[in-house]
Amino acid sequence: GYRVSLQGNFFGRNHTYITFPEYNPCKHIKLDPPFNIESNVTASQCHIWWSVPWHLEEILQYELQYKEYSTPWEVALNKTLPSSLPQIEIEATELHSGVTYTARVRCKVSENEDSYHSQWSEWSQTTVFQRPDVPKLSEKILITGTMQLLIIPLSFGTLLYLFWNFNLSSRWQKASPALTFPRQLLSFSHSIICTMETLR
């Protein structure tokens, strides 16, 4: 431990001011930033990793920051890593296809560590990566699948419509003789009346 004091001459008098009566350097650490940051992108995810001194790996925590290459860091996305492993995987769904990104990382002593305390380090150097464009074949497959999903209900609806119309048409034809029955009955009645008049 240390005792930190400030001495000075003020208005012709020497004064000593105790700034830290008990200063413990291990509680006020500022680490060097991670180094050798690299990235690798696949169709499903982006893998980013970096290096730190090996004897510090187990007590550190990290914060990753990434953004589109052409935008300022003020709009970057931040991820605090849940483990002390010097790596992270970003799902491809979080990245736009064909867009170039840049990322950086910083570190500090984990909050769970009792022996040491620190503030965040400076940001590391950056790594640049890009999610590949979605293949056109996949787009065609997606369009074909969508068309198939649309054609099935449309076909079913058309068949249902034709069946309904055919059924109504059949019922109409069966009902037609009943509709002509009153005319036949009137003709029959007229014949009977004529016959009765003849007999008279």
TrEMBL record:
- Subcellular location field: Membrane
Topology with regard to the membrane? Single-pass type I membrane protein
Which keywords annotate this record?
Glycoprotein, Membrane, Receptor, Signal, Transmembrane, Transmembrane helix
Where it mainly occurs, coarsely classed, is: membrane
Q: What is a biological process (GO) this protein takes part in?
A: immunoglobulin mediated immune response
Q: Which residues cross the membrane?
A: 141-164
* Family annotation (Gene3D superfamilies): Immunoglobulins (2.60.40.10)
Fibronectin type-III domain location, by residue? 33-132
Q: Does the keyword Lipoprotein apply?
A: no
Q: Name one GO molecular function term.
A: cytokine receptor activity
One family from Pfam that matches here is: fn3
Q: Name one GO cellular component term.
A: external side of plasma membrane
Q: Which PANTHER family does this UniProt record tie to the protein?
A: CYTOKINE RECEPTOR, INTERLEUKIN-9 RECEPTOR
Q: What is this protein called?
A: Interleukin-9 receptor
- Species of origin: Cuculus canorus (Common cuckoo)
Q: What is the lineage of its organism?
A: Eukaryota, Metazoa, Chordata, Craniata, Vertebrata
